[in-house]
Amino acid sequence: MSAEAIGGGHNIPVALGGIIACGAVYAVIGLIVMAVGYKWVEFLMPPIVTGAVVAVVGLNLASSGVGYMTSGRAATDNFGILVGLITALAVAVVAVYAPGMLRRLPILIGGVFGYLLYGLLSNILHFGGPNIDLNSIGNAPLLGWPALTAPQFDTHAITLIVPVAIVLVAENLGHIKAVAAMTGRDLDPYIGRAFLADGVATMVSGSGGGTGVTTYAENIGVMGVTKIYSSLVFVIAAVVAILLGFSPMFGAVVHSIPQAVLGGMAIVLFGLIAVTGARIWVENKVDFTDNKNFITAAVALTLGAGNLVITQGDFSIGGIGTACIGALVIYQILNKFGTGKKAE
What we know:
344 residues, two-stranded antiparallel ribbon, 16 helices, globular
């Protein structure tokens, strides 16, 4: 839910107040999980639900990756599709065939390859477009202070945004299960800590003018490709990202990356996330001959992949949110009142 939607298109500080309140509720949920345990969360969100949520994240985002390659001027003569698919192929080749440490950097290497390929074909050979805007990079200052915005607290905005915390709980739990499936480790004892960290991070972000913060499926996709799971890497990445936030020139470099190249990397990452959801089902031996599991997964995947968006006034919840809620509600109803009949 965007700040503009909550703030009526102009009152961003009001939206930030709602984001901080949502983060506070999210943090409280984390404290409750840390105090009383996580079994009640697992009861509400068993493997069939968490697997569906993880798969839905990948499937729902898939259209964005494809859209990067097929939108704008780059779509002319399938130029964007060509560069995007070659970029995806480069990522795959590096991940499987590159020697030594290079195999750990398929996204970076594939992305740089796609960037250079796009620049060669567009800027130099004029095969397609639009060209990479190198002037914006040269004109941007090396160092600069980021713009900060103070929040304002409004009851209406708070009541609109706070319920999103429930969706974030379901989504984050799915992410934790995905990482657990990748690493082969039991991460359940850290569920409450993860919720708390997300909530606190959201409050800090909103207090300075940033958006709400949660775990990002894109990073899970990177972990799946690189096979690097060390938490120290993410600490270092966070510090580097904060420092780079003070460089408008670096921001200009990031903005110069062609959408076609981003799309090529995205289809690999989002695809891995979707497959990880299925992996959760396999590793937890989910019984798909049981109708309650079968139907829960079917409905959740359809809502998420179809991107059902529900809007009421200023409030809007997208396909991932509707799929999360749908999976939770349908499973609990079928599990409580269902007959346990097997699918034919």
